[in-house]
Amino acid sequence: MWNTFISDNENLSHIKLQRPLVIKPNIGEQGIQVFTNIMDDADIINKVNEINSQVLIEEQIRGYKEYRVTVLNDVIIGATEKKTASVTGDGQHTIVELIHAYNQSLKMYKIHTIDYNYIRQQGFQKHDVLPTEFHLILTNVANMSNGSQIQEIDINTIHPINILLFKNINRILKYTLSGIDYLGDLSVPYTLMGSVIEVNPEPGMDIHYTVVKDKRAFLTSIVDNLFNT
User: Fold this and answer.
1) At CA 23, angle to CA 129 and CA 173, rounded to 5?
2) DSSP character for 90?
3) For residues 173 and 193, what is the distance between their CA atoms, to the nearest angstrom?
4) What share of the chain is helix, strand, coil (3-state, %, to 5)?
5) Looking at residue 180, what is its pLDDT?
6) What's the DSSP call for residue 39?
7) How far apart are CA 86 and CA 137, in angstroms?
8) Before 20, cis peptide (omega within 30)?
């Protein structure tokens, strides 16, 4: 955590994490003011100053799928894969125009935080015309509230060791309900690959309800779980 009582240089000297880094508020929601792919000291200081609260700095884990797993009273009631917002070039429209079209295509939860620094790292400026078929990631913050695509995951495909992990997290934190953000592959034991990156004590249900095929069964599972404990 960034210490506001010491100098920037002292804070930087305490950061022993491998870069790139993630910088975000200590308390936040919906992916707001979460910055990824931070590489240099100047950018660290700029992002810390931009966030008007206590700041967390974490090592960024890349290359894995990202999920939200929700646990209620020691039962996993939903699992969803989150895919970061992205656009594909057509050789005619600028990145800004493609982003506008992407938001227009979404019924709800438009992308509100675009990582132009990460776009530059991919070799582009926001007013560039994106080459045909080039897949441009707009942000590494996979959050439904920030325009991410979401997909239901069959709970039965989650590895038993991972199920035990998620239940233990909920139990150790003494939460009734928790939304666990996980990087890895739910079908592969976390001991081989995978990391928990965040635990949300008041997660929204939209991330599951929006994509589940049987919405009635999903709601029934919540009610049954609440009244059978």
Assistant:
1) 130
2) -
3) 23
4) 30, 25, 45
5) 97
6) -
7) 4
8) yes
Domains of the chain: 8-59 (no CATH), 65-83+150-227 (3.30.470.20), 86-140 (no CATH)
Listed in sequence order, the DSSP H helices in the chain are 8-14, 41-50, 95-105, 116-121, 160-172, 206-209, 215-227
157 alpha-carbon distance from chain centroid: 21
Give this prediction's pTM: 0.81
- Phi/psi for 62 (5° steps) reads -125, 160
Going by C-beta distance under 8 Å and a sequence separation of 6 or more, which residues neighbour residue 3?
Answer: 10, 11, 14
Long-range contacts for 91-94 (Cβ within 8 Å, ≥24 apart)? 91/129, 91/130, 91/131, 91/132, 92/129, 93/129, 93/130, 94/126, 94/127, 94/128, 94/129, 94/130
Using an 8 Å Cβ cutoff, are 80 and 68 in contact? yes
pLDDT single digits (tens) 74-117: 999 999 999 999 999 999 999 999 999 999 988 788 888 888 88
